[in-house]
Amino acid sequence: MYTFSNRLKIASFILMAVGAIGIAIGFMSAPSNVAEAKAIVAAQTDGHGDAHATEDHAISNEAAEIHDEDHASMTDHAVSSDSHASEAHSEDHSAAHDEHVLHQLQNKPWAALYVAAFFFFMIALGVLAFYAIQRAAQAGWSPLLFRVMEGITAYLVPGGIIVFLILVASVAHMNHLFVWMDPEVVAHDKLIQGKIGYLNGPFFLARAAFFLSGWIAYRWYSRKLSLAQDAAEDNTNFVKNFRLSAAFLVFYLVTESMMSWDWIMSIDPHWFSTLFGWYIFASMFVSGITVIALVTIYLKSKGLLEQVNDSHIHDLAKFMFGISVFWTYLWFSQFMLIWYSNIPEEVTYYVTRIQDYNLPFFGMLALNFIFPLLLLMNSDFKRVNWFVVMTGIVILAGHYLDIFNAIMPSAVGDQWFIGIPEIGAVLFFAGLFIYTVFNALTKAPITPKRNPFIEESKHFHY
Fold first, then answer.
1. What are the start-end ranges of the H helices in 342-445?
2. Helix or strand or coil: residue 209?
3. Per-residue pLDDT tens for 1-42?
4. What is the mean pLDDT of the chain?
5. Distance of alpha carbon 176 from alpha carbon 105, whole angstroms
6. Distance of alpha carbon 410 from alpha carbon 60, whole angstroms
7. Could you give the CA distance from residue 384 to residue 66 in angstroms, rounded to a whole number?
8. Is 344 exposed, middle or buried (0-12, 13-18, 19+ CB in 10 A)?
9. What is the pLDDT of residues 277-295, one digit of tens each?
10. Which of 105-109, 230-234, 236-240 ranks highest by mean pLDDT?
11. Which of these, 459, 448, 462, lies nearest to 135 by C-alpha position?
12. 245 and which of 136, 155, 183, 369 could share a cystine (Cβ 3.0–4.6 Å)?
């Protein structure tokens, strides 16, 4: 049995406490009105003021001048009317821009919270998919790791509840993360109006509740069958788990894609990609496998999982390497087709990220592809624990940036910054994740006993 050390438990509480303080600071520092928002933007631009608003005024003034030149022969009354109309339009446009910037700055703490909440939740969901695949494939190498996977997927409950509450807050108009939830925006946007049958608050939350219920129910029942198999005299529970896992994978493939559309892609309802579901899946899958490797290596360092050998770590590292390459393939396929076709409605997604998120956008590619490729290509390195840990940390940092790049541009525009709210949110959810996972590991023997393939797993070498 695993014992949750007081040192690790205290560390998780400290992370949650420090993270909660950072999250609170983020919400308290968010502007409450346009004047505060303009002051924040002015400070960020070193006193140059709102460059976007200035540009908008310049465009409006230039348009007014051209308009006056073209209609110089009109009466003074007509010119005066046009001038007033132009000024009114300029003022309305400026006010709308200021309101938009206010919403972006108010979104910052919410977006920071949402990115971290989704990132740690997707790790647990990726592990659940990997676990179901191992069960359905009746893999012989992995049963020694089943308890580790079951411990990590315990985070689905608290993590899923928090993500759901953020979605509820969005539907309740407590933030502006999802622009299609704003009736005023929908009233003037024909494209969103065409999607209102799918993108509406009640249906959105109903789908989220359905997804979460299905994932958590499978995890609970599969775990129950797994523990029952330890005390059983036959393989009935094992066979039930096999059938359940095979059926769940069909459910998972559909719901994971829909979840990625709802929870991430719909933040920018004017853009879509048919590859997006697979793209998010690859990110959560490699992140989940990476955490399995990190937790396994940690437990081995504490004298547990003695029968897990270098071949098991090597296989996990191979998955880390292979899925990193798969993620890159999906990323490039999506990027190349959109960039090459140069359709304005599609390419703006990447133009925004390259112009306003240059460092995190290209940094993500380096962390998610170049580093894993160079570090894990050598087969011998996959058996070195500290090397796998180092690579795993790089991969997790890269995929946090991946989710950051997917959510932030549409939520906060160019007002992004990795500061106290972002770091605080990561620390809070890291602490909650550590506490939940390692607390769950104390609830059952760390090694399965009656799995039909357990002996094969114990003697797994190549």
1. 344-356, 358-365, 371-376, 385-412, 420-441
2. helix
3. 788 899 999 999 999 999 999 999 999 988 877 777 677 777
4. 87
5. 10
6. 25
7. 70
8. exposed
9. 999 999 999 999 999 999 9
10. 236-240
11. 448
12. 136
